[in-house]
Amino acid sequence: MKIGLLTSGGDCPGLNAVIRGAVLEGIIEHGDEFVGFRDGWRGVVERDYFPITRHDVRGLSKTGGTILGSSRTNPFEGEFGGPDNIQWLMDREGIDVIVAIGGEGTLTAARRLYDEGGIKVLGVPKTIDNDLAATDYSFGFDTAVQIATEAIDRLRTTADSHGRCMVLEVMGRHVGWIALHSGMAGGAHAILIPEQPQSIDQIVEWVLQVRERGRAPLVVVAEGFTLPEMTEAHSTKGLDAFNRPRLGGIADVLAPLIEERTGIESRATVLGHIQRGGEPTAYDRVLATRLGMAVVKAAHREEWGQMVTLRGTDIKTVSIHEATGSLNTVPQERYDEAKVLFG
Ligand code: F6P
């Protein structure tokens, strides 16, 4: 069998481990051949690809990033986009299946290619945000949480030295899993996530409670969190909650507000892409490797239109439909559990 691999969307620690797992499973167990498309769907629609050998994946599971490159190209666009062109390319190159390793956008595109054009695709879920439905955890999430937790630990000592309030912004555009887990692990005094809007009055109350107990308050906020006071206009016009020009992320809005309302000197830290770079944790390497091996097994079972997924501790396959269309948000009970630890 000839298998085409691509990595698409924001990169994620563990992508290379998926590639290695797939290639080793395929070559050793089935005598497969592999090609890698460069920069996600761009490599498909611009016909930019190269053979991947066993030698190419040596020592790869510990490395960050993706040897294939990534982009947010839509496979339905461009000169050679769309199912007919892609099928033509697959026929010409003898490619039996395209394995798309990506998040919501990538998997939605893969699903459409399968539904609308009968393209043989398989999916591997990828997101540091852990926001994909139909998988219990995605690789990259554990690494991001580890990095964010280390940042909280480091902020705590400098916060204590100066008696300051620290506001750490972590990734999570639509869901707050990284904030929730790192905040719990690092002992944050408030965790703010997109699923749970909190007023500035509530945040100030949490911060003041911490100060009354003689501690330096530590707030972890997911980038997608908004204050109810912030209207659509605040985001679209780049204004903060006081209609002032908004320069940075939500942490840069919150820290000055907290300082104004509490009188506690406050600082914002935006962790940014550090959460996505560097080596994956051992957990993510193992999960990613298993998913890579499993997707090749699924190809040999001809389970087109499916995605490999983590269910409990087992790797299963589900329809890509199940993984797209809705997000894996933080449930109320998980947030309530974390809230007990605030203050
Ligand atoms: O979806 C993963 C993610 O890391 C989000 O948390 C974040 O909002 C986004 O990607 C950043 O994307 P980019 O790298 O394109 O700035």
UniProtKB/TrEMBL annotation:
Keyword Cell cycle: no
Keywords carried by this UniProt record: ATP-binding, Cytoplasm, Glycolysis, Kinase, Magnesium, Metal-binding, Nucleotide-binding, Transferase
SUPFAM superfamilies according to UniProt: Phosphofructokinase (SSF53784)
Catalytic activity: beta-D-fructose 6-phosphate + ATP = beta-D-fructose 1,6-bisphosphate + ADP + H(+)
GO cellular component, one term: 6-phosphofructokinase complex
Compartments, as annotated in UniProt: Cytoplasm
The keyword Cell membrane is annotated on this UniProt entry: no
Record-listed Mg(2+) binding positions: E104
One GO BP annotation of this record: canonical glycolysis
EC number: 2.7.1.11
Transmembrane segments: none
Residues holding ATP: G10, R72, T73, G103, E104, G105, T106
UniProt site positions, description: Important for substrate specificity: G105
Cofactor: Mg(2+)
Binding site for substrate: T127, I128, D129, R164, M171, G172, R173, E223, R267, H273, I274, Q275, R276
Active site, renumbered: D129 (proton acceptor)
Domain Phosphofructokinase: 2-298
Gene Ontology molecular-function annotations: 6-phosphofructokinase activity; AMP binding; ATP binding; diphosphate-fructose-6-phosphate 1-phosphotransferase activity; fructose-6-phosphate binding; identical protein binding; metal ion binding; monosaccharide binding
Enzyme class, spelled out: transferase
Subunit architecture: Homodimer or homotetramer.
Described purpose of this protein according to its UniProt entry: Catalyzes the phosphorylation of D-fructose 6-phosphate to fructose 1,6-bisphosphate by ATP, the first committing step of glycolysis.
Similarity remark: Belongs to the phosphofructokinase type A (PFKA) family. Mixed-substrate PFK group III subfamily.
Protein known as: ATP-dependent 6-phosphofructokinase
Higher taxonomy: Bacteria, Bacillati, Actinomycetota, Actinomycetes, Micrococcales
